[in-house]
């Protein structure tokens, strides 16, 4: 049964059973976000010292993917009220009335328990505990508190998306190390300029729902300046694997070039006039930021694969 929200007039499957399809439940997992999470987790697992049975490795990645999807479903459950108002999210399964809120909640909790228990039983309980903490961090600490209470929500909350390579690393080694912390740092430092680029051209949406994103609270100028700082830090972190021996000098050259362009993109955003409705530099930086993170982790994987084959 579907009811209408009295304030927004949008359909919400808030009570009863929805007529959701498998595609709707898959959408609850935030597949585009999950794909990047899975890729960075695989990089952590692949780069970690020590062997892992391929079947066990596949199970570990599946558990991490399921856990990431579970966190996404819990995020959509809690944020369904603001998702209904924002243009970017209004067509998600819950605000569109295709999935009932309580079904999304049950789905998220079930997947969370399954992913953590399976990872613990099949691989090791340290990795499982780290995955459980990641889900809690994103679904509770970030979604239920940080997101709606502070303009630093993305800075602090970004750790949730940065943990997967550490989980992948822990699946092999049973612990963490300096190298896994560096992998964490790349995504952690990348997250603020990535999301603030989006927030700049979606300021009106965040204003409408009262989410204190940095551009809305501190203003465009301050946000742009901070984006440059984080872009520089991201570029440095991107090269760091070569400094510890995790990657080769060839990787360092590639990562340095990508980092330099990331900084250049942030400077273009900084030079963008305030109030520019087109926001083209911010949109371009947002798109490039996704390419940057994918390319850095792909280069790390390729660098290690080449070393294994020819080193």
Key traits:
2 strands; 311 residues; single chain; 2 domains; Tetracycline Repressor, domain 2; mainly alpha; Four Helix Bundle (Hemerythrin (Met), subunit A); EC 2.5.1.141
Short description:
The protein contains 15 helices and 2 strands. Helix 2 (31-47) runs antiparallel to helix 3 (54-78). The chain has 311 residues and is mostly helical.
Model description:
Its EC number is 2.5.1.141. The protein is an all-alpha fold. The longest helix is centred in the C-terminal third of the chain and has 31 residues, at 280-310. It has two domains: 1-175, UbiA prenyltransferase (Tetracycline Repressor, domain 2); 177-306, Four Helix Bundle (Hemerythrin (Met), subunit A). Mean pLDDT is 92; it is low at 1-16. It starts with a strand and ends with a helix. 74% of the residues lie in helices and 1% in strands.
Largest sheet: 2 strands, antiparallel
- Looking at the structure, the CATH topology of the largest domain is Tetracycline Repressor, domain 2
The secondary-structure element order is: EEHHHHHHHHHHHHHHH
Major sheet: order of its strands? 1-2
CATH class of the largest domain: Mainly Alpha
What is the overall shape? flat
The CATH homologous superfamily of the largest domain corresponds to UbiA prenyltransferase
Low-confidence stretches: 1-16
Q: What's the overall average pLDDT, rounded?
A: 92
Radius of gyration: 20 Å
Name of the CATH architecture of the largest domain: Orthogonal Bundle
Can you count the helices?
15
End-to-end CA span? 61 Å
Structural category is mainly alpha
Q: Please state roughly what percent of the residues sit in beta strands, choosing from under 5%, 5-15%, 15-25%, 25-35%, 35-45% or over 45%.
A: under 5%
The count of DSSP E runs of length 2 or more, i.e. the number of strands, is 2
Q: How many independent structural domains?
A: 2
Helix share of residues? over 70%
Keywords: Cell membrane, Heme biosynthesis, Membrane, Transferase, Transmembrane, Transmembrane helix
Enzyme class: transferase
Membrane topology: Multi-pass membrane protein
Catalytic activity: heme b + (2E,6E)-farnesyl diphosphate + H2O = Fe(II)-heme o + diphosphate
